[in-house]
Amino acid sequence: MKVMANGSLSRFNPAQSGAQGMKVVATGLLVVMAVVFGVSRAFEPAYPWLGYVKSFAEAAMVGGLADWFAVTALFRHPLGLPIPHTAIIPRNKDRIGQALARFIQENFLIPSVVARRMRNIDVAGAVGHFLQSPSKEEQSRIRAGASRLIADMFESLDDERLGGIVKSAVSSRLRRSEISPLLGHALASAINEDRHVPMLEAAIRWTARALDANEQLIREMVHKKANWVLKLAGLDTRLADAIVDGLRKLTAEMSTDPAHPVRIKIEEALAQLANDLQTRPETRERVEAIKEQLLDNKSVSLWLDTLWQKGREAVIKAARNPDAVMAGKLGEVLKSMGGTLEKDARIRSAINQFARRAVVGMSASYGTQIVKLVSETIRSWDARTVTGRLEAAVGRDLQYIRINGTLVGGLVGLFLRVVDTL
Q1: Cβ pair 30, 406 in contact under 8 A
Q2: Contact 57, 410 (CB under 8 A)
Q3: Distance separating alpha carbons of residues 144 and 131, to the nearest angstrom
Q4: Is 39 helix (H, G, I), strand (E, B) or coil?
Q5: For the chain, what is the radius of gyration of the CA atoms?
Q6: Where are the domains of the chain?
Q7: Mean pLDDT for the chain overall
Q8: Residue 319 in contact with residue 147, Cβ under 8 Å?
Q9: What's the rounded Cα separation, in Å, for the pair 115 and 356?
Q10: Per-residue pLDDT tens for 53-69?
Q11: pLDDT digits (tens, 9 = 90+) for 262-312
Q12: CB burial readout 333-365, b (16+ within 10 A) else e
């Protein structure tokens, strides 16, 4: 950066600085030739051999001036004079922009050309190799970049609005989905694979604990329901004991005997429920009604809000500390993805095909807009901007042309002087 006269900052351009340096060299060489011409012309009568030097310097000045005029005429009017066919680039910037845009379109953005170029590019293989064995610095940079991107994305979004969108999306998805067949299929799969057995045994144990915890309540209920005859004979206590003991014996037998009739009845009921959930319209309608009631419940809405907040906070916290939380897992996932891309030719071919179609599709859909953008951008630049940017890009080589013109012109003048002398 450098400070301008008005105190503002201007970005330092190395290409423009190099072009200016070569311009000084080319102009300095032309001045040197002029000085050499004057000196040799003055001393030629005393030293005849200086005639060759004078001829070299004279032709060098002509060649240097001619190339200076040609180079300058590309960007501006030489000496500010409106000579015809000068300031070529500023006068033709719109045509240059159109030509450049047409060149880009014809050589880079035609779908057939893009498809032909993409056919030999193994995008998936390159990505797989990079993910499989990146350097420590690259791996750390990818991990940190991915984590920072995730955290910034979640923090930049409106929490309240995004939370509402997530909650609404989840709720709408649940409302559109008929969960009864899903529940029935899940229950049937659990029964077929005996995954319901641990849940059934847990329910039996819970029943036994509930019986122990509520024994006194059962006795009081029996005492209240018994008539005065049973109470007078003291049979209500015996009846309560029989009920409690019978329930305890039942739960104990169900817990130890997988073929217990009650367990079999429960399993049959579960199998029937799984079938009803999938096939019986009345059961499915009843489940859907319960689902709608739950979704309309404020407690469920608050639960969804809490779930979103906890999930968002957990993601941000993990992303902000990738080395401690996400580094290992993310690194393993990336390495696994890279290994899969390198080894699985079918997946690699599918990804490469997708990449080709995506790039070709983008060129077909947006190629015209890209060309139009290039053309309109150059058209919107003022002549000074176009001149400055092009001169900065190629000015150094153009100054070499001036230097070469000076030297080649001098050699041609020297050659002609030698031929004339001979």
Answers
A1: yes
A2: yes
A3: 15
A4: helix
A5: 44
A6: 13-91+381-421, 130-343
A7: 76
A8: yes
A9: 6
A10: 999 999 999 998 888 88
A11: 888 888 888 888 888 888 888 888 888 888 888 777 777 777 777 777 777
A12: ebeeebeebbeeeeebeebbeebbeebbeebee
Averaged over 305-333, what is the pLDDT? 65
**Are the C-beta atoms of 94 and 379 separated by less than 8 Å?**
yes
SS3 3: strand
Query: Given this model, what pLDDT does residue 99 score?
Result: 80
User: What is the CA 134 to chain-centroid distance, rounded?
Assistant: 19
Contacts of 64 (CB under 8 A, 6+ apart): 26, 29, 30, 33, 402, 405, 406, 409
Q: Is the pTM of this model over 0.85?
A: no
Residue 106 to residue 323: CA distance in whole angstroms? 47
SS3 9: strand
- Which residues make beta-bridge pairs with 10? 2
Place of tokens 């997988």: 258
Phi, psi for residue 10 in degrees, rounded to 5: -120, 135
Phi, psi of 57 (to 5 degrees): -65, -40
Whose structure tokens read 């190395």?
A: 14
Largest distance between two CA atoms of the chain: 160
Query: Which residues share a beta bridge with 9?
Result: 3
String of DSSP letters for 49-92: THHHHHHHHHHHHHHHHHHHHHHHHHHS-GGG---TT-SHHHHT
- Is pLDDT at 327 greater than 80 in this prediction? no
Which amino acid is it at 256?
A: T
